[in-house]
Amino acid sequence: MTYKRFYFVKLLAAMVVGIFAGHAAITENYLLLAVVVVLAATFLATLRYRVTEVLADERDYGIAGKAARITVFVFAAVTTLAAFSLLALRDYGAEFELVGFVLAYAACGLLFIYRIIYSYLERGTTPQKKLSYIVVALMLAAVLAIAGVRLFSDKDSWLCQDGQWIKHGNPSAPMPETGCQPAPVDVDDQIISWFEAEQLLADCRVKQVGQTHALAVTLKLDDGTRLQTTEPVIDYVLRLASEAQQKCGFRIIMATE
């Protein structure tokens, strides 16, 4: 097979994957898209070995390596700057903080993966060193995952679970003396957007919050009004409620399914 024909097959495969990507976005059948991507990558990898012409020389690989190195550091620099900028805007909305932390983790993770792969492919690396790099990478990945769960989950508060107050983290406040009853879901409750729910929490209007594993959130305001909304990720409303407690100076009853 010639390089020209192989290049044409690559374009055709990219078109097919693009068609399935559009179909997956409409039908939400992402499993089919994943299967198509894997099959296309396997097919192209197998076909590449049948090309008789030179696909790339040392100069091409050198340029590709330099371009990849520059791309990694540019991406890390831009995402780090964007992360700090978004974190500085956290008072204007909790979504800024969430996106900022995601970008920060992405930048750190990319640089870490780059360093591990570079060390792994470096000349003169013994199998023992390669194994040690892999072990260190897995350990640090586990630490980052645990830190991320701890960072983005509700902490240092009392949670209402199954009619009992459960200590989560190390809350400074004593266990609430009020009863622990999850807020029932009422179909007549007014439905609001998540942005409006964040604003109500920031304005110290919320007295009680409840959530389900389906991300459904119930808010009870200071005037007794009950509202329904949907949080972007699980436990996000509990985290915002904990921050609102410190800001507003009163306890917010938190219940979770």
Task: Give an account of the 3D structure.
- The chain is α/β, with parallel strands linked by helices.
- It has 2 domains: 3-152, no CATH class; 157-256, Signal recognition particle alu RNA binding heterodimer, srp9/1.
- The protein has helices at 3-27, 30-48, 58-88, 94-121, 127-152, 194-202, 236-248, and strands spanning 157-161, 164-168, 190-191, 206-211, 216-221, 226-230, 253-256.
- The strands form 2 sheets. The chain has a 5-stranded mixed sheet, with helices on one face. Strands 1-2 form a two-stranded antiparallel sheet.
- Strand 1 and strand 2 form a beta hairpin.
- It is elongated.
- 15% of the residues are buried.
List the helices and strands and how they pair.
Blueprint: H1 3-27, H2 30-48, H3 58-88, H4 94-121, H5 127-152, E1 157-161, E2 164-168, E3 190-191, H6 194-202, E4 206-211, E5 216-221, E6 226-230, H7 236-248, E7 253-256
Parallel strand pairs: 3-6, 4-7
Antiparallel strand pairs: 1-2, 4-5, 5-6
How far from one another are the termini?
60 Å
Approximate strand percentage: 5-15%
Helix/strand structural class: alpha/beta
Q: What is the count of DSSP helices, taking H or I runs of 4+ residues?
A: 7
Could you tell me the mean pLDDT? 77
Most strands sheet: 5 strands, mixed
Q: What is the percent of helical residues?
A: 55-70%
Query: Order of SSEs, N→C?
Result: HHHHHEEEHEEEHE
Main β-sheet, spatial strand arrangement: 3-6-5-4-7
Shape: elongated
Gyration radius from CA atoms, angstroms: 25 Å
Work out the count of structural domains.
2
